[in-house]
Automatic annotation (TrEMBL):
Keyword Iron listed: no
Lineage: Eukaryota, Metazoa, Chordata, Craniata, Vertebrata
Function: Plays a role in the early steps of cytochrome c oxidase subunit II (MT-CO2/COX2) maturation and is required for the stabilization of COX20 and the newly synthesized MT-CO2/COX2 protein.
Signal peptide region: none
InterPro entries reported in the protein's UniProt record: TMEM177
Protein's organism: Bos mutus
Transmembrane segments: 50-74, 86-105
Keyword Transmembrane (UniProt): yes
Designated name of the protein: Transmembrane protein 177
Length: 379
């Protein structure tokens, strides 16, 4: 789209750009662009009636287009100003509902995403994993009226979603690697980040050892998910987004009234709105990450406090997670160094956000509880 500022440049240079249809994969692998520049082409405009008429015609067209664009924009602005409270409430409700929707209907969504499919068929939950899950629920003391459903997942760690108190219940995905040999044998192909794992290599052997958990470590991993679901923390995690949206709107409106910006130029209000939006996003990122950190620390402490066996299993679980990440760091080469630190923690994707607690910090926290449970003088 051309603006009026482009017209002087077009009087001395004429340029044409042809862009072939580029193809982009999900990772952005290929892109094809061909550019052709024609010029310079100097032009002299003679003050003839035809040229003057052409200029007047172009000016009329530009004015008409501007009027057409300003009309819907003005009507939208008036509509937003008139119904801004209703739009704000609807937006906040929509944000909350979008983040909590898969917890309200976990069975078809989560199980479809994480179901383990060996040889083209969904793997049923084995009797061993079923007994393990029932044992964890008994240790926690889950009320009989709360509904849980377990399934086998392809992930290395358990996954969960839902509200056990609601009719939809909650689902917990138990890793197929908890079965041990049938999954981590040398004949079973496993692909991690697009790369097949060679179980016979040193890094593959280390990864297989990291996936082999003791009974206590498996119980800790599952109990952590059950405690999370029983606490209803999913609803709490969905609150920062609508709260920050409402707070940003209130701050923006109040500040513009206090500073008298409604009587000033629109460009100043637009710049101020941009600053407020950035501040709102920073507040959302900080509040969400802080809440996640506090929740993860509480879950570890709550689960480790069930018994000394759970605390011991928690230390082993996080040690195995760190060891597995180090094995993946070696298996994936340069990509692994971008994903995992030399200590086994996950490298944050965003430089200004740390969405989860480091695994080393979570291990140390559970280790302190284990030592405290064993009594003084334990090492």
């Amino acid at each position: 789209m051309l603006s009026l500022e482009d017209l002087p440049r077009l009087s001395s240079y004429s340029a044409m750009r042809f862009t072939s249809a580029g193809t982009r994969s999900q990772a952005g692998l290929t892109e094809s662009t061909d550019t052709l520049l024609v010029g310079p082409c100097h032009m002299r405009i003679w003050p003839t009636p035809a040229v003057v008429g052409l200029l007047l015609f172009l000016l009329a067209q530009v004015t008409a287009v501007a009027a057409l664009m300003a009309g819907p924009l003005w009507r939208a602005t008036v509509f937003v100003q008139r119904h801004r409270t209703g739009l704000l409430v609807g937006s906040c409700a929509g944000l909350f509902g979008a983040q909590i929707s898969y917890h309200l209907f976990p069975d078809p969504v989560v199980q479809w995403l994480y179901q383990y499919w060996p040889q083209g068929q969904p793997a049923p939950l084995s009797p061993e994993l079923e007994r393990l899950f029932q044992e964890v629920q008994q240790d926690i003391g889950v009320p009989s009226g709360h509904h849980f459903e377990a399934f086998t997942t392809f992930t290395f760690q358990p996954v969960s979603a839902g509200f056990p108190r609601l009719p939809g219940g909650a689902v917990v995905g138990i890793p197929a690697s908890f079965l041990g040999g049938p999954v981590t044998n040398t004949d079973q192909p496993v692909v991690v980040h697009g790369q097949r794992v060679d179980w016979r290599s040193p890094a593959g052997t280390r990864l297989r050892d990291a996936l082999t958990l003791s009974h206590d470590a498996q119980k800790f991993a599952l109990a952590k998910e059950v405690v999370y679901l029983e606490s209803g923390a999913a609803a709490l995690q969905a609150l920062p987004a609508p709260a920050c949206l409402a707070g940003t709107w209130a701050l923006g409106v109040g500040a513009k009234h206090a500073l008298g910006l409604y009587g000033g130029p629109m460009s100043l209000r637009a710049a101020f709105n941009l600053v407020v939006a950035v501040a709102g996003f920073v507040a959302y990122a900080f509040s969400t990450d802080s809440l996640t950190h506090a929740l993860e620390a509480w879950l570890d402490r709550r689960t480790a406090s069930l018994s000394v066996a759970y605390a011991r299993g928690g230390v082993e679980f996080y040690e195995k997670v760190l060891s597995g990440n180090l094995a993946l760091r070696s298996l994936l080469g340069q990509r692994g160094k971008k994903l995992y630190t030399p200590s086994g923690n996950v490298i944050p994707r965003h430089w200004f956000r740390i969405k989860h607690l480091p695994y080393t910090a979570r291990r140390d926290s559970v280790l302190q509880m284990w030592r405290a449970a064993l009594g003084p003088g334990s090492s």
